[in-house]
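Observation: inputs received (chain + zinc ion).
Thought: call the complex predictor directly.
Action: predict_structure
Action Input:
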Amino acid sequence: MNRHGEVRSASEFKDIFEDTGDSYRPYRCPFCEVSYEDRCIITECVKAPHFKLPDGTSHREGCNGEAGDDSSPSVNAPSKTPKRTVVGGIELPEALVGRRKAQPVRKPGDDGLGLPPDAIEVARRRKSVAADKTISSHYTTSLLRAIVHGYRRLRKHAYDQATAAKLEKGSAEYNECFRETLNRYRLSLYGQKLTYGTAFQDSKLTPWHVERVYSGSGKIRTEADYLVIRDADSWPKQFKSKELLPFEVKLSRTLAPNTPTSHLQAMEELEGLAAMGQDIEWHAYGLPLLQGERFELSIDSLDHFYWIGQHRQ
Ligand SMILES: [Zn+2]
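Observation:
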């Protein structure tokens, strides 16, 4: 829970920090309001974002840091770290998920500055917060950017592994080793259970009829209602076919009224790049559709689009 009394997972707080630069520290247990130390939320480090109960402190009034009805200890307590995936000294996100609204837990008018909650209030809060174990026990993100950064780190790691095994770049053994490394790391895309080896796709393959993280590079141009990136490469129309088709990514220039500030900034930056006729190296999550004689990938949220060099907080 942040200083406004909003309950989120540590991963979600990390997304918000990366997106906006706001941390709303200090963090506390949402139920008994004991202070938490934040780990890997505003700093990049080996472990996934999590909270830690400072040494020598404990929860109070029957709280164990978990939502629910009982006070039995649970494996998901924030001070314990589940088994994690670490590559190149940095933990990899395990899932791309949708943004969620924060859950406020304090009673109206409670600013968290008064007396700590009593046992009755702790019990009320623990019951009111819906426990979402998938979200709290895994390193998730709603920003494609975090996934792309993990992917780039993992590819470097796969390259190092293949090189260390003295495999010749481009040989069948090298490719096999590279692929095996990528496939060892799980990555869920909105519930599709994939790996870092299967979640990404570029122009070497026919676009699947499913959502994946597609990538390429090309010029960005402005149309009346859209920004359009035409990929520099053509993509195979069908599996193993020689017929190649253009591939375009479409972003609506109209953003929703309650759109995050980071999306407004991204759109402004993209408009500038389009005006200069710049090439960008893009990544986009979505479903490309065959529109006549070209593929078209419409992006529904700027959370699902990232280009190399995008401004970061
Ligand atoms: Zn607590």
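Thought: report the result.
Final Answer: The chain has two domains: 1-83+98-132, 201-313. Residues 201-313 form a domain with the OB fold (Dihydrolipoamide Acetyltransferase, E2P) fold (CATH 2.40.50).
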